[in-house]
Amino acid sequence: MQVDFETLAQQVADWYNDSSFIEMRTKKQMCNILDKATLKAEEFSHIFKNIYDYFLIDDVLEIMQHARVNISKDISDANIILHRIGKVLNIRVLSDISKKFTSLADKKSRSNVDTSSESIKSLIAAGKDNNLENLNRIYKILSFAAQEGYNSTIEYAVKNDYINVKAEIFDKSMTNTYKLTDSNILIKAAYEGDLTLVESLYKNNVDMKYTTRDGENILHAFSISNNIEGVKFALNFFDINSVNSGNETALFVALLYSRYNVVDYLLKRDDVNTNIISTTGSNSDAVLFRIRENSMVIGRLLEKKSDFSKREKLRSKHLIDAVHAALKDNGTN
């Protein structure tokens, strides 16, 4: 069955924030879908946040060339796009320009409305219940405040302990679930790749060395979000080889979730130890685990008679056979 790119392009609202949809697509498929779609600014931002997590940077840039965005007269749309491009390219000046535009637009659009005060009211309304819904709610309030430069909101959240609302964050793949237990706003922000908020919390004397119940820290969380600048920031507070209770390093986590931009950065450092063994296996085991999942996806696509050419089908079959052989040699079923 052929992939209906036209239909997928018309149904962007149904999948733009679904990371599993992006993970199962090839570069060619994403280019074909975006060729036929016109995105909203928010859709563009979410799509390329997920694409950045699952594709190499050269492929991300190629896919981005196929994106068309309907930009409204509201400067916030351009700001959202500029902010995302800055994140993808790791060009901080673009993010700084984005924040400046936001600040100027805010001053122009509001007269005597104290937006920071409104954010504080939102925090009070949210309360301090420890559950994932509330953690997400408070994160959104504080992330907005950090982006807008409303430091009084961050100060209030720190002083009144809103940053220590906790919940478990689940990062799911097809056959595995990674849990960040007792995650507070700091871990949540790093997990989202939100370096702006993490730095705002740091400036307000939040302990950057907070760890979850299972020993994860912002270095693990930034590795999951594939944020190289976040990883660099976290290394000011943690050793590159620091481990959680499962003896998993940031490198292991990045390999497990195919965060290849972070993997590439960590492997280029002389101080990384590639021989640390976690309770679930070595770094090679983490790679093989992800390869097994990817081979499952290829197998399913072949079963569905997806849009593979004869050559691609043959190459895919050879790849799956090679994966099975590697897993067998490694003693992995």
Automatic annotation (TrEMBL):
GO process annotations (BP): regulation of transcription by RNA polymerase II
Signal peptide as annotated in the record: none
Residue ranges of the TM segments: none
SUPFAM superfamilies with a match to the protein in the record: Ankyrin repeat
Name this protein carries in UniProt: Uncharacterized protein
UniProt organism field: Trichomonas vaginalis (strain ATCC PRA-98 / G3)
